[in-house]
Design goal:
Layout (H helix, E strand, L loop, with lengths): L1 H10 L9 E8 L12 E6 L2 H14 L3 H4 L13 H17 L20 H10 L4 H11 L2 E7 L2 E2 L4 E3 L10 H9 L3
């Protein structure tokens, strides 16, 4: 039955609306001086288990297309790559430059709230331009459209789900991969 649901979801290019409803828990970060502003709180998204299962299957189908768009030097959130690989490459380049009596410099970026800023149409265009099959592009768009969230903090809770118009879901197995694809033109 589970296999049939996954096949139906990917074959119909659709993720059911109920699987796109996210419950988000608000948890205070320990040791912060001021809890009267949002910054010292961590938002933890609880996604439906079935949604995550279907996304893992879709992710397995999508990863074969990474050679079309991801640089071999893209290490973040990729199977078989690690932070240590990045360190080794950087050190090798520094040593190489030093041996040639050259200087080395590096620029490191941390995109704050990166997942929240992903534009759905640009992601679809990037996937299409990198030869992802149309059914996967459509399925990803279905996953991102009509998502909703309900925020809860212990006894205090929003009464209903609120629509989300941009971004990719935190906690989704697909999100790191989709962000790598989205940012690949950079």
């Amino acid at each position: 039955m589970l296999t049939n649901m996954m096949d139906w979801s990917l074959g119909s290019h659709t993720l059911l609306a109920i699987l796109k409803q996210v419950l988000t828990m608000v948890i205070p970060k320990p040791g912060k001086p001021d809890y009267s502003v949002p910054k010292p709180y961590r938002m933890i998204s609880l996604l439906p288990t079935l949604s995550k299962t279907i996304e893992h299957v879709a992710l397995a189908r999508m990863t074969v297309f990474t050679s079309n768009c991801l640089s071999p030097l893209q290490f973040a959130c990729r199977k078989g790559y690690s932070a240590l690989d990045t360190v080794h490459i950087i050190l090798a380049k520094v040593y190489e430059a030093s041996n040639d009596k050259l200087y080395s410099s590096a620029l490191f970026l941390d995109v704050q709230g990166a997942f929240d800023k992903v534009l759905h149409q640009r992601l679809a265009e990037t996937m299409t331009n990198n030869n992802f099959p149309p059914y996967l592009v459509d399925w990803v768009q279905s996953c991102l459209l009509d998502r909703s969230v309900r925020i809860t903090e212990g006894a205090a809770s929003e009464p209903s789900f609120t629509p989300i118009q941009v971004g990719i879901p935190q906690g989704s197995p697909l999100s790191p991969f989709l962000f790598n694809v989205y940012s690949s033109p950079l």
